[in-house]
Amino acid sequence: MAINLPGLADIKAISKPLLANLQKLGIVDVQGLLLHLPLRYVDETHITAIRDLRSGEQAQVEGEIVHAEVQYKPRKALIAQLQDAGGQLLVLRFLHFYPSQIAALKVGTKLRALGEVRQGFFGYEMVHPQCKSVRDETPVKETLTPVYPTTAGLSQASLRKWISWALNNGDLSETLPAFAYEPQALPSFAQSLKNLHHPAPEADLYQLEDHVSPYWQRLAFDELLAQQLSMRRHYARRRSIGAPALKPSKALITALLRSLPFALTSAQQKVAVEIGNDLTQNHPMQRLLQGDVGSGKTIVAAMGALQAIENGWQAAIMAPTEILAEQHYKKMQDWLAPLNIKVTWLSGSQNKTDRAISLEAIADGTAQLVVGTHALFQEQVVFAKLGLAIIDEQHRFGVHQRLSLRQKGQTSKTKAPHQLMMSATPIPRTLSMSYYADLDVSVIDELPPGRTPVATKLVADARRDEVLTRVREACEQGSQAYWVCPLIEESEALQLKTANDTYAWLQESFPELRVGLVHGRMKTAEKQAVMAAFTAGEIQLLVATTVIEVGVDVPNASLMVIEHAERMGLSQLHQLRGRVGRGAAKSACILLYQNKLSDTARARLKIIYESSDGFEIAKADLALRGPGEFLGLRQSGVPMLKIADLERDTELLETAQGLAEQLLKEYPTYVDKHLERWLSRAEELVKV
């Protein structure tokens, strides 16, 4: 029942240059042509008399060229006058033109021109209209003309030709049983494609161009359903792989909780139970633990690690930056060393001797918990018995990096370690339902008691002196402060304040304060020394790049200044703001911005100023940036949506989610056909 998807390279009439241009648009087969949908439409279905034209409207006129010349004042332009059957004149103006256009506009030529009408010096005119010569019997088009997304070297005429060919020669049959579409009364696949590529003249342009027509909705539903089917199938496939069944911890977790100076929140307890139950299963856990900045994900991860260790297995924690990995290592040492757990550190910056010692401990099983950076999935790292892989800030790692770490513990083709992914960037509900439908999701939805809300202030760069006063007061009262800059070295393109310059300037401004500097290009030992001094209170003001975005926990730091906040994304601003407010003192985050803000920057700053709820901020971020940018590296191997829109099509997504399980269970052959149509190449990537 497999659907036939011929490659375009097999079609002799398609030249190599055309094929290359189509591939730039992601079109590699007939199905790709069919699903390359118009951006907008132009109406060439009727001729408007020149006397009926209206300024600002797009129209098509027909007439004879009665005058044409190249004028040189006030600027060079090709000017032609078109006279229609009613004797009225319209000026056609071309500011950029070729000799071939001069020849095409010679007097006596019968022409059809399509363009926007505007008021000129001599009456109505069109600037750079689309023109084509016609005969008396040349018919007008019977459907609206589609305008497609394209690339340099690929004309609209060529795209229209080949998409029309695909409509006549491609497979427009249904892939799923009719009942799948009955609740929404959606039109057929064939009807939808024909009406989107060639709409009737009376079609509702608003519905078509805003993607709310039933035809667009049908294709959006098909795409969402394909994504759900793909993700749930991957989910089921992973559950067929074996994993160590780790019995609940009887001693270690109890001992850890007794030693803590705080009690777990009810949200932490709830997700710890979910993770603990997953680890007892004989198939790999694939769970995403999400919680806002400071919600306490690390202690929950430690409990999961202890369950693996108590069952005789190793656990690993991988973080995207050395600063964050170092924070995890120190915390785990503090919590687990008193329980006689051997915690080992591994990073790319270790010297050869230390690295060799760590590698040996990992390989012989002496290292029960390994904490590190990307170095954990390097080829020379061999685990004796990896039972649980924990990946923090998982969206910063590519699909192949996560897969590499999982394979470190795969003792055979049928056994794999459990995997826990953590994210402090909350994931909006629609993203969780779609792009994360292959995962089980746990949410820590409350902050520990004692966390103080952070006051957010928007301050224009011109008021920088007031900010300096605020920093001085905070440090004199015994608090500490961060000053965050977006670049390390000067960039002529962006001309932003740099960390190095700001460090020198702040040292000069505050001779009485101890000022430190940390950035990503410093050697690891230097960074560690600076962070240790800041944590110990020896440094009062820390100038930093966004390297401190995640994982830095200094309760005495109550003030943060962020330079050029308008240049940063919402999730980054929220993460940075989460570095303060970790102690009992009132905390503030000052967002310094340059005037002349773009609309997007203004919208971002308004959202971060008005909200401290990570989920609300993430939802707004998704609306501003779209899922592709929001997901970052996570998208490797994930079927990305081209037609559906998560915000607009939430109801369709919910219906697709409910229908997917039934189709997988009762109609697996239909599912194969549907996935081949919609995800023939994305399906080849097994997600992790």
TrEMBL record:
Family listed: Belongs to the helicase family. RecG subfamily.
Record key words, sorted: ATP-binding, DNA damage, DNA recombination, DNA repair, DNA-binding, Helicase, Hydrolase, Isomerase, Nucleotide-binding
GO MF term (any one): 3'-5' DNA helicase activity
One Pfam family here: Helicase_C
InterPro entries registered for this protein in UniProt: ATP-dep_DNA_helicase_RecG, DEAD/DEAH_box_helicase_dom, Helicase_ATP-bd, Helicase_C-like, NA-bd_OB-fold, P-loop_NTPase, RecG/Mfd, RecG_dom3_C
Domain annotation Helicase ATP-binding: ranges: 278-444
UniProt EC number: 5.6.2.4
Enzyme class: isomerase
Keyword DNA-binding: yes
Stated role: Plays a critical role in recombination and DNA repair. Helps process Holliday junction intermediates to mature products by catalyzing branch migration. Has replication fork regression activity, unwinds stalled or blocked replication forks to make a HJ that can be resolved. Has a DNA unwinding activity characteristic of a DNA helicase with 3'-5' polarity.
One BP term from GO: DNA repair
CDD domains: DEXHc_RecG (cd17992), RecG_wedge_OBF (cd04488), SF2_C_RecG (cd18811)
Record keyword Nucleotide-binding present: yes
SUPFAM superfamilies the UniProt entry points to: Nucleic acid-binding proteins, P-loop containing nucleoside triphosphate hydrolases
Top-level taxon: Bacteria
Protein name: ATP-dependent DNA helicase RecG
Domain Helicase C-terminal per the UniProt entry, residue ranges: 467-623
Catalytic activity field: ATP + H2O = ADP + phosphate + H(+); Couples ATP hydrolysis with the unwinding of duplex DNA by translocating in the 3'-5' direction
